Amino acid sequence: MFAEHTDRYLRAVDTALPGFVTKLYIAGSAAADLEITVDPAALRRYNLENLRDYWRPLARRARQETGELGGAEPVPGEAVSWLVLGPARLHHTLAHGTVVAKADAGAYLGRLFPAWTALQDRAVRWRGDGGETFTVDDLRAAADAVEAVVDDAWIRWGDPDRAARVPAR
């Protein structure tokens, strides 16, 4: 259900922000060495719109597609990991202007929203060795985490007047 969106999302990021991802090596060169400039306002707008237009509907769809399932039924780790870590990376970029690895995004999510620490820890471990298992309840919690991250980002950076009044985390 989620894998088909990955390629489209990555192509959109690469088209909108070519070379922006730090620590990405292209033909042996660090992306940072390519001296590509990024418009911070365009980056902020892109990330906010991506959170609103891609991640929030994806979270809602995850809830809809699991609505009839019992909470203990297994779900793919990829789905939970994708929902937990993807929006956290965008939020981190909005807050700090850099792109981080998914493991770092998980730690950031845990600091930003302590309620999601256990789930993000498991999502990061799943990406490391695939040994974690997840349930429908985990997927629903991941969808809730998406909503929290999207809401927080729009409060902080979607309205410049309001964002200036929100304390940094």
Number of domains: 1
Continuous helix count: 7
Q: Which runs of at least 5 residues are low in confidence (pLDDT < 50)?
A: 1-7, 21-27
The dominant shape is: globular
Strand content: under 5%
SSE layout and pairings?
Layout: H1 3-16, E1 25-26, E2 29-30, H2 40-65, E3 74-75, H3 77-96, H4 102-112, H5 117-129, E4 134-135, H6 136-158, H7 160-163
Antiparallel strand pairs: 1-2, 3-4
Helix pairs in contact: 2-3, 2-6, 3-4, 3-5, 3-6, 4-5
Which labels suit this protein?
5% strand, globular, disordered N terminus, two-stranded antiparallel ribbon, 7 helices, mainly alpha
Written overview of the protein:
With about 170 residues, the protein is mostly helical. The chain has one domain. About 65% of the residues lie in helices and about 5% in strands. The chain is built from seven helices and four strands. The strands form two sheets. Strands 1-2 form a two-stranded antiparallel sheet. Helix 2 (about 40-65) packs antiparallel against helix 3, helix 2 (about 40-65) packs antiparallel against helix 6 (about 135-160) and helix 4 runs antiparallel to helix 5 (about 115-130). The relative contact order is 0.14.
Q: What is this structure, in a nutshell?
A:
This protein is mainly alpha-helical and 169 residues long. The chain has helices spanning 3-16, 40-65, 77-96, 102-112, 117-129, 136-158, 160-163; strands spanning 25-26, 29-30, 74-75, 134-135.
